[in-house]
Amino acid sequence: MAVVDPIADMLTRIRNAHLALQKEVVVPRSKAKKAIAEILQEQGYVLSVTEGERELTLTLKYVGRKPAISGLKRKSRCGLRQYVGVDEIPQVQNGLGICVLSTSKGIVDGEKAKQMHVGGELMCEIW
């Protein structure tokens, strides 16, 4: 069966792998997924991102037996896109999480979008 929302599928795979305490998760590769995975690595939510020919392998990070990612939420979906201006970029979990935006300057986290002074499509929140 075809995947309708590839970003939501990636977030669900990460969530399920954390619940099963798996070391790695494999997701089909795309430019958007790679950009999100690199943001997760920069922010310290995953240990590493390995790019294969057709897939991305994310090595998940744990603190003891608890996952580094407490929650993932897809905000803008296929049926209801959610756009925010630079002044409307949300603060996730009182600053303890990040939001990922698709802007005209690429896929960036909320803090970089504020620094670049651009808004965009609010893709997901991670905390």
From TrEMBL:
Keyword Lipid metabolism among UniProt keywords: no
Gene Ontology molecular function, alphabetical: rRNA binding; structural constituent of ribosome
GO cellular component: cytoplasm; ribonucleoprotein complex; ribosome
Database matches in HAMAP family: Ribosomal_uS8_B
UniProt-listed NCBIfam families: PRK00136.1
Function of the molecule: One of the primary rRNA binding proteins, it binds directly to 16S rRNA central domain where it helps coordinate assembly of the platform of the 30S subunit.
PANTHER family from the UniProt entry: 40S RIBOSOMAL PROTEIN S15A
Protein name: Small ribosomal subunit protein uS8
